[in-house]
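Need a sequence for this fold. Nothing fancy.
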């Protein structure tokens, strides 16, 4: 890891979170919230962007509660909606611990749901929102739901690789060996406490996190909604829905991109975020 990025453990509401930081404390703060999935953590999502944007923003990227090197409460609430609620409130507690009054938030997938829930609970704590491949308009695609259940029933490196192949537009041109990535992530995903939380989060018998048009209309924050056109995990229609009903939202759809737009379209993604958060977009 670049020495531009530092990390520490922070107590947030009684739970220890691993928090990665880059950029000077005097710069505008940005909170980076990763998505869900086996073995994911903050650096898997945001390492390159936190390095590149260190001269421009104070970047804060936690391993969200139940992921990576952060605490895994037991019992953990079951289902996406209940886990988003706990994680949103825990992330607000992290801002308290870091003495950050308000912050821009970039949320990927589940991180986007947490972002919007934070804006509902504590509107003054959120400045601008970037929602990338965000949930909140329904569940996973049927294909992604099936692959997730297959993995949870029989966790393996091959199963995780197959799941991750869905996240990219073209695995052959992605530039990362998904087999090696799956093996690396299994070192985290196979930890018993992490596996327990992951299984609870993806309990498909429980409610998903869906915001109605009326609920979205009550979130006034400026929002940049980004989606990969070929996303097979969260359908692009979800971002059309969010951008239609959020009152101050603009939508950008990347062609030839799946669920990992921040990796597949890194330079364009970075330029959009920098322009939006700095006020020139």
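Here you go.
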């Amino acid at each position: 890891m670049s020495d531009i990025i530092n990390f520490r453990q922070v107590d947030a509401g009684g739970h220890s979170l691993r928090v990665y930081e880059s950029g000077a404390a005097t710069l505008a703060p940005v909170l980076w919230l990763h998505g869900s999935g086996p073995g994911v953590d903050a650096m898997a999502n945001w390492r390159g962007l936190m390095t590149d944007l260190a001269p421009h923003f104070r970047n804060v990227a936690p391993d969200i509660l139940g992921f990576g090197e952060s605490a895994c409460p037991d019992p953990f609430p079951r289902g996406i909606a209940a886990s988003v609620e706990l994680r949103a409130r825990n992330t607000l507690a992290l801002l308290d611990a870091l003495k950050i009054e308000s912050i821009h938030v970039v949320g990927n997938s589940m991180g986007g749901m947490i972002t919007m829930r934070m804006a509902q609970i504590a509107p003054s704590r959120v400045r601008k929102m970037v929602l990338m491949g965000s949930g909140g308009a329904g569940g996973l695609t049927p294909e992604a739901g099936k692959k997730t259940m297959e993995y949870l029933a029989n966790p393996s490196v091959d199963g995780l690789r197959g799941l991750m192949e869905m996240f990219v537009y073209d695995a052959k041109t992605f530039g990362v060996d998904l087999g090696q990535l799956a093996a690396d992530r299994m070192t985290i995903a196979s930890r018993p406490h992490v596996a327990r939380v992951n299984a609870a989060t993806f309990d498909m018998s429980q409610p998903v996190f869906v915001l109605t048009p009326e609920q979205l209309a009550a979130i006034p924050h400026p929002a940049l909604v980004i989606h990969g056109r070929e996303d097979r995990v969260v359908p692009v229609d979800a971002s059309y829905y969010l951008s239609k009903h959020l009152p101050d939202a603009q939508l950008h759809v990347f062609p030839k991109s799946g669920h990992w737009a921040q990796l597949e379209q890194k330079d364009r993604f970075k330029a959009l975020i920098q322009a939006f958060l700095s006020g020139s977009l």
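For context: The CA atoms of residues 23 and 190 lie 33 Å apart.
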